[in-house]
Amino acid sequence: MAGIKEIAKITGLSLATVSRVFNESHLVSPKTREKVLRAAEELDYQPNIMAAALRSGKSKILGVIVPEVNNFFFSGIINGIEKIVSDSGYNIIISQSHESQEKENEALNSFLKLKVEGILISISKETTDFSLVQKILDSKVPVIFFDRVPNLEHINSVTLDDHRGAILATEHLIDQGCRNLVHIAGDPKVSIFDKRRKGFIDAILKSRHKNIKYSIIELNADVQNDIGILQKTFDANSNIDGVFAFGDEIGLHALNLLKTLDVSVPEQVKLIAFGNADFTNLTEPKISTIDQECSQMGELAANLAIKNLQDKNINPQTKVLLPRLIVRDSTS
């Protein structure tokens, strides 16, 4: 495979000059740059970006960590990040934590070894020790948190108003005449799920309707176990007429469980979820949901990262997106 030695040989330039071209040095004239790039194209030469990063300390790479890539929400965020980064001259490396703090820390350490210039991260469900993250922040590597944010001071973050989203979902059920509500809740140790739980309760307590009953349950996507949980919930209160699921996937799971129990949606029970994943518009009935504005979240996070790279003295910023109610057949 051709290298810079071959390029130097056919152009008659020094190795140092050829190297400066690929390192984007301002010391190289446009004519020389064009000559080197033309030779590189003829030789089908591809510069080793990682090697250049180790030499120069400038990788032009941003590291992105998400809990799961195959999750609609996080894939939407990645699309938003790529949209901005692709126009900025940077590249991204994506890693998954699989909801594990250990894997998250491994990814962070790998990024540091690769000399990424910035990190965008949504923390895992397991993460409670932020010492490594704090060490990175102290080193002045820009870190942008999105969706799931640690309780740390002076950080850049882009989040959704999850509390408000849960209020919108719950108020919609109440407006549709529901008076016996169930919230299928997520892990309360995860801040976004805890906010949705609190939003559900606050909407009921602040409602002008004072005769609303409610309960909170947790499902785990184990069909047989969850059928039992849902059956017990309906046995304890046969008048349940509204269900708010903390996420779209668990909402779809709940829809299938209700069908198994011969409970008709929306005639007997109205169902709303959270996320606005593509499949919610393809189910029967189509699922009402809360749009999390995932692509916009990714774009804002990427823009924040680039601003921090351009200005090291910029103050940390907190951006909060407003959720949007999407009404479909499951509640109408």
UniProtKB/TrEMBL annotation:
Residues 2-56 form the HTH lacI-type domain. The keyword Nucleotide-binding does not apply. Keywords: DNA-binding, Transcription, Transcription regulation. InterPro entries: HTH_LacI, LacI/GalR-like_sensor, Lambda_DNA-bd_dom_sf, Peripla_BP_I. Pfam families: LacI (PF00356), Peripla_BP_3 (PF13377). GO terms for molecular function: DNA-binding transcription factor activity; transcription cis-regulatory region binding. This is HTH lacI-type domain-containing protein. It comes from Flagellimonas aquimarina.
